[in-house]
């Protein structure tokens, strides 16, 4: 990912996985808008940051407020100040310190890429390693157990 601080998938993995077994991510994106409404609303860095951390913008049906973040990465795209991005990320961590584990210092990484995504002036992507992902695993396990009890779909595999 080109920018002031170059980033790649290896660096992301190194920064987001504190222990090998804790490697399940929650992904978020901002702005989540319809294709037609994008041109009418210009977002600022604080609005992007707020939306990016919001549970409604997560691509996983788990509420991050029900767990704690081990690590997180925020990738911003578009013309914006790195200083403003860093200030917003520090602001988020200070306001929501109870949602971050204290035993991993500096657990939020941010990256700025000057090239905006097609059709948008600014956008941000969020990848978080949160303990709240257990909600999703619990739900999938319950659904599997219910179907396995009824022996549903087993004939496809035997």
Automatic annotation (TrEMBL):
GO terms for molecular function: GTP binding; GTPase activity; structural constituent of cytoskeleton. Keywords: Cytoplasm, GTP-binding, Microtubule, Nucleotide-binding. GO terms for cellular component: cytoplasm; microtubule. Residues 5-142 form the Tubulin/FtsZ 2-layer sandwich domain. It comes from the Eukaryota. SUPFAM superfamilies: Tubulin C-terminal domain-like. It is found in: Cytoplasm. The keyword Phosphoprotein does not apply. GO terms for biological process: microtubule-based process. InterPro entries: Beta_tubulin (IPR002453), Tub_FtsZ_C (IPR008280), Tubulin (IPR000217), Tubulin/FtsZ-like_C (IPR037103), Tubulin/FtsZ_2-layer-sand-dom (IPR018316), Tubulin_C (IPR023123). The keyword tRNA-binding does not apply. Pfam families: Tubulin_C (PF03953). Tubulin is the major constituent of microtubules, a cylinder consisting of laterally associated linear protofilaments composed of alpha- and beta-tubulin heterodimers. Microtubules grow by the addition of GTP-tubulin dimers to the microtubule end, where a stabilizing cap forms. Below the cap, tubulin dimers are in GDP-bound state, owing to GTPase activity of alpha-tubulin. Belongs to the tubulin family. This is Beta-tubulin 2. The lineage of its organism: Eukaryota, Viridiplantae, Streptophyta, Embryophyta, Tracheophyta.
